[in-house]
Design a protein that fits this description.
The chain is α/β, with parallel strands linked by helices. The protein folds into two domains: 176 residues, Response regulator (Rossmann fold), CATH 3.40.50; 134 residues, Response regulator (Rossmann fold, 3-Layer(aba) Sandwich). The protein contains twelve helices and 14 strands. The longest helix is centred in the N-terminal third of the chain and has 16 residues. The radius of gyration is 20 Å and the shape is elongated. Bound molecules: alpha-L-rhamnopyranose. The site of alpha-L-rhamnopyranose has 14 residues, from helix 10.
Length: 356
């Protein structure tokens, strides 16, 4: 289930660990990577300022997605480490308004914090703001809400870094030129839409002049729909060179379709996927490279952030510091954003070092 420890950051040479451009949100503290002690947290127990018994609820985009399972696994670990009460609720599909009723129930249950990956940046806002008025801290992770309705956003990697990585991998998959298409998650997903925006900006750069984006289709993070959308793309665009899917559900479904079709070897697939779901498609040559972060660490960091907020240790102001247990110290960046770290690119050369 979990990643091989330290492999995530320790394989720079092998894994072509990407240098992510600096942007508004903060990254993990440099003191952390340099191995220095966090400045003002000299106490023996870094969770000392964290209240115990906090009720922290996770609300991912949907429950039946292996990615979400890994994420919330990390969340549970963090909540247990701070002696809190962990709860997991969520819809079975990732539609825009599917999370509202769950938020309302969490408010009634007087949770101390809600950790949410938003299916739509705005649809969840009235319910979340009601939660906040009642004293519940709101942390978005993976897919942000509108900034006005959460206290903190835990971003898996900088948005620019993910978009740039996708463009680079797609260009390589297409062999530098030709028609490409995007298979995304839901049309409203904040995270995919933000990455696609950067991706399109990247395509305007001279090095990508040979690439032509023909369309974007949506598999709604549903395996069957993603599979069918892939089939439709290949039929509608016979000259397609590559499909980029910035969703773990989409890339797995597209790879499955292509791997057993006549398109194998003609149309390349890349995007964001989990190593365990993608291993067979890397081994059979359908996929040369794809990227991701460690979803367990994203869930874990979010849990520590929620506990720090609910304990009054931080408020979401730029520059505030907190310690995320074994992940080390983090600082709140601009727009109340905290960034987990750079994504990793997986290839045949390194995929067997990862197990999540
Ligand atoms: C899917 C979800 C999730 C996204 C990953 C990459 O599992 O859409 O939000 O971060 O893909």
């Amino acid at each position: 289930m979990h990643r091989i420890s330290r492999g995530f950051l320790a394989t720079t040479g092998v894994a072509a660990l990407l240098v992510v451009s600096a942007c508004s949100g903060t990254t993990r503290d440099s003191a952390n990577s340099a191995g220095a002690a966090p400045s003002n947290t000299a106490a023996a127990d870094p969770n000392a300022a964290i209240k115990s018994g906090l009720k922290i609820a996770y609300l991912p985009k949907q429950l039946n997605n292996p990615y979400s399972d890994i994420e919330v696994g990390g969340g549970k670990k963090a909540v247990e480490a701070v002696k809190g009460e962990y709860k997991l609720v969520g819809p079975s599909e990732a539609s825009a308004s599917s999370q509202v009723s769950y938020i309302n129930t969490l408010v009634q249950q007087q949770q101390n914090a809600i950790v949410i990956a938003a299916n739509d940046p705005n649809a969840v806002c009235p319910a979340l703001n009601q939660a906040r008025q009642g004293g519940i801290k709101v942390v978005s992770f993976d897919s942000d809400t509108s900034p006005g309705c959460r206290d903190l956003f835990i971003n898996q990697a900088t948005t620019a870094g993910v978009g740039e990585t996708l463009a680079k991998m797609t260009a390589e998959a297409a062999g530098g030129s030709g028609e490409i298409a995007i298979l995304s998650a839901t049309p409203n997903a904040t995270n995919q839409n933000a990455w696609i925006e950067v991706f399109k900006t990247e395509l305007a750069k001279p090095q990508y002049v040979g690439l032509k984006l023909v369309t974007t289709v949506y598999g709604n993070d549903d395996d069957q729909k993603s599979f069918q959308e892939t089939q439709g793309l290949l039929q509608s665009y016979p000259n397609l060179k590559a499909i980029v899917s910035p969703t773990t559900v989409g890339i797995a479904a597209a790879s499955r379709y292509v791997s057993t079709s006549n398109y194998k070897g003609k149309v390349a697939i890349t995007g964001l996927g989990t190593p365990n779901q993608m291993r067979q498609f890397v081994k059979d040559g359908t996929v040369k490279q794809f990227a991701l972060w460690d979803p367990a660490k994203l869930g874990e960091l979010s849990g520590y952030a929620a506990a720090a907020l609910a304990s009054g240790q931080i408020t979401g102001k730029e520059g505030e510091k907190f310690t995320a247990g074994p992940l080390g110290p983090y600082t709140v960046g601009a727009k109340a954003e905290v960034v987990l770290g750079p994504p990793t690119v997986f290839t045949a050369g390194n995929i067997d070092q990862y197990n999540f």
